[in-house]
Amino acid sequence: MRCKRLGLLRRGVVLQHDDATSHSTNLTQQWLQRYGWEILPHPAHSPDLAPSDFPLFGPLKRHLGGMAFKTEDDLISELRNWFDNLDVDFFRVGINSLLWRWQKCIDLHGDYVEK
């Protein structure tokens, strides 16, 4: 498996995923070990802690709502423009909310964490 952005593949990355089959295959696990990525475990039946719940998707959905794109390149251009104009605090708040939800899960001994 080759990646064009090898500069991003470095030690110190912490990855959270949902244990989907594609994430837990031997090939994927070997790749993650080779680059020294730490895997943050995902508690079973905890959709509120899923990376897909990251606060990115609601605002993105609202932004794209009602838009129509003639080509894939038009969509990609709009996405790049949207991401380029986001304030860095947008991501900081999102990451911090994930950390807060993880801490709440720990405090509740793994029980469901409501938003």
TrEMBL record:
InterPro entries membership: RNaseH_sf (IPR036397), Transposase-MT_Hybrid (IPR052709)
Protein name: Histone-lysine N-methyltransferase SETMAR
Gene3D superfamilies according to UniProt: Ribonuclease H-like superfamily/Ribonuclease H
GO molecular function list: nucleic acid binding
Species this chain originates from: Plakobranchus ocellatus
